[in-house]
Specification:
It is built from five helices and eleven strands; from the N terminus they run αβαβαβββββββαβαβ. It has about 260 residues and is an alpha+beta fold. Helix 2 runs antiparallel to helix 5. The longest helix has about 40 residues.
């Protein structure tokens, strides 16, 4: 009975403040930083959601004609376009270092001449896996040379890295490190529309692809935000544990009867 009473008394001892200014400074700094990072991640989530909604609205627009497209200036990224014409006989370029569903390969970049404007467009057909070794050329489904109607979306790269213009040859097929027509202009040998066309999946000659609007989903930003907030709570708990302690016993428990 005495032991129960003593245990109850210990649970209700007054707390003793043991303030450490270094620990307090660290806690306040860390807590503020973690909360800021959590809020920042939530803001990034909102930005990604807005970006995805805007991209979806553009994708669902009625496709433009090539004439209407050429008349536009800025803000064309993601716009759908309907193009009539034919592929050229030029060997397609292969965009290097592409991974799809765990397989390494290339994206096939083919030239397409629009009959309405006589403009040449660089079309990204999609993905083909690499051969058994890098020296073995990949198997590319051929493009018909007769008249076709293609549906595609404009892709505007935000970074133009001219050092990627030069490529390498593998059994006559040119491997490049960029799919940006502005970078590849010299390699293509003829003037082309300055922005890439990404072929719709349901369009003839399309190949598998994975072209997300963002590299990180909104859900991941929310998950990171939760992690930062939990870390903020953890430093407060740790600070409380080391700062507020019970008053010590006058006598050890073994001598109390």
């Amino acid at each position: 009975m005495n032991l129960i009473i003593l245990a109850h008394q210990r649970m209700h001892r007054p707390l003793r403040l043991n303030l450490n200014w270094k620990l307090a400074t660290f806690t306040v700094t860390s807590f503020t930083l973690f909360v800021y990072l959590g809020i920042w991640q939530l803001d990034r989530e909102d930005e990604k959601l807005a970006l995805m909604q805007a991209a979806e609205a553009r994708v669902n627009q009625i496709p433009l004609s090539t004439g209407a497209l050429l008349a536009l200036g800025e803000k064309i990224d993601g716009l759908p376009v309907l193009i009539n014409g034919h592929y050229t006989q030029r060997q397609p370029l292969l965009k290097d270092n592409v991974v799809l569903a765990g397989r390494v390969g290339f994206e096939v970049l083919a030239l397409f001449i629009d009959e309405a404007t006589n403009m040449t467009f660089l079309v990204n057909r999609g993905f083909v896996p690499m051969g058994k070794t890098r020296d073995v050329p990949p198997l590319i489904p051929p493009t018909p040379l007769d008249r076709l109607t293609l549906t595609a979306h404009i892709y505007v790269s935000t970074v133009v890295e001219r050092q990627y213009a030069a490529g390498e040859l593998i059994d006559g097929q040119q491997i490049v490190q960029s799919a940006d027509p502005r970078v590849l202009q010299a390699s293509l040998g003829s003037p082309v529309y300055p922005y890439l066309l990404r072929l719709d999946e349901a369009t003839p000659t399309a190949l598998p692809r994975y072209w997300p609007v963002t590299s990180m989903s909104p859900e991941k930003h929310r998950g990171y935000a939760v992690q930062w907030f939990l870390m903020a709570i953890a430093v407060v708990i740790a600070f409380s544990y080391f700062t507020f302690k019970s008053e010590p016993d006058d006598q050890p428990l073994a001598n109390e009867h």
